[in-house]
Amino acid sequence: MIERGTKGIEIIVRLAILNTVPTIFEFIFVGLILLIQFDWRYLLIVIITILAYTYFTIVYSSFRVVYRDKMNENDEEANNKALDSLLNYETVKHFNNEKIEESRFDDAMFGYEKASIKILTSLAFLNFGQTAIFTIGLTFCMVLSGLEVQAGNQTIGDFVLINALLMQLAIPLNFFGYIYREISQGLTDLKSLFSILNVKPEINDIKGAVSMKFKKAEISFENVSFSYDGKRKVLDKINFSIPSGSSLAIVGPTGAGKSTISRLIFRFYDTTSGKILVNGKDIRGITQISLRRNIGIVPQDTVLFNDTISYNLKYGKIDASEKEILDIAKKAQLDKIIKNFPEGMKTIVGERGLKLSGGEKQRVAIARTLLKNPPILILDEATSALDTLTEREIKDSLKSLAKERTTIIIAHRLSTVVDADKILVLDKGKIIEQGTHKQLIKKRGLYADMWSTQQTIKKAEETLKNIKPEYKKLISS
Fold first, then answer.
1. Is the pTM of this model over 0.70?
2. I need a surface site. Which of 141, 257, 466, 471 has the fewest CB within 10 A?
3. Partners of 435 in the beta sheet?
4. Strand bridging mode 247-251 / 406-410
């Protein structure tokens, strides 16, 4: 879509500005010769021919735009389906659905082929019509000149000159038709590009927004409510405060609104009502760039660029030196892993980091957040996708990362939040419990139920690990 749009701009600029003006001058020059040297009737025939040619070209090219739009739509659909299936190739292979993806792509390409054939056949008819109009005009002029030669008013040389002038006019006239056709197609291709450029961002910096750099950060939510679609409340009158340098854990069932809180702090969305304050300042009064510069996140699903480990680490601080990167890698316990790679820091991690394990990717995420050195840290299910052993190793790195920072821990595994200074329990967008781990266990509410369930599952898993292999076969049978 964007590639076609940029090509459309290039075509419009090149043809409309650099080629159209010389073509118009050529028309004028030929017309003046015919008028001065011969007769006004030749000029009249030429003008009628040009007008008819232009009218036919404009009308028929406008008709062809419909096919061009259809072709672009099917091309975008085919590209989207191809990209989607390639990005999710593991899922495609898991379910043996290669044929289905091929069929979906073929269906989109079939529509593209049909529209493309119509574009080509209509182009042939357009060229035929343009040639016919010019030939009729040329015939009239030559008949008129022939009659003048016969009457003795013109010579054979005049007849040849008129023919040469008109044939010379055919080149810019055909080129003019090409110009209009290409510009018309270029404008069609630009529609998609402008549809993207015209999309206004939902979140904008307000007038007078200030740029801020925090050394310490106290975060407060005051009566915060939020809804994605305006119908269902994801958060409902949330109130809490996180003192600078302390940690707050947010737990609760799936869909309770835990991750939404992190998105609101990053200001990917604005609150429906209420305020989010950092050091007493409403974040809507802070520029988005400076706000996000002060926040670091270690997400559940770490997405890496298909580049070197060094580049992915530098993403936390683009101007970081090699020494800084190596020091941070040690703090994140990533240095030993890097040494095992033949190319070290220059190892390519693959698409979305597929050449690294889950634990290795998380360490990269921790390291680049350490490199960013933000005063506010969000750990969004940072260890939920890891096994117990890797989780224990990562937790040590997370502790050093969270040291002296205002930390928000969003977790499903309650074992990761027991040391938090305060724990909020969310359910259906509301805070139903809050306190330390010990206080919440004593309350015997939702948190205590979740803790009990997870501990039971954990004990069962440990028991199964200790069962001898021959007994495991008996259990499974």
1. no
2. 466
3. 423
4. parallel
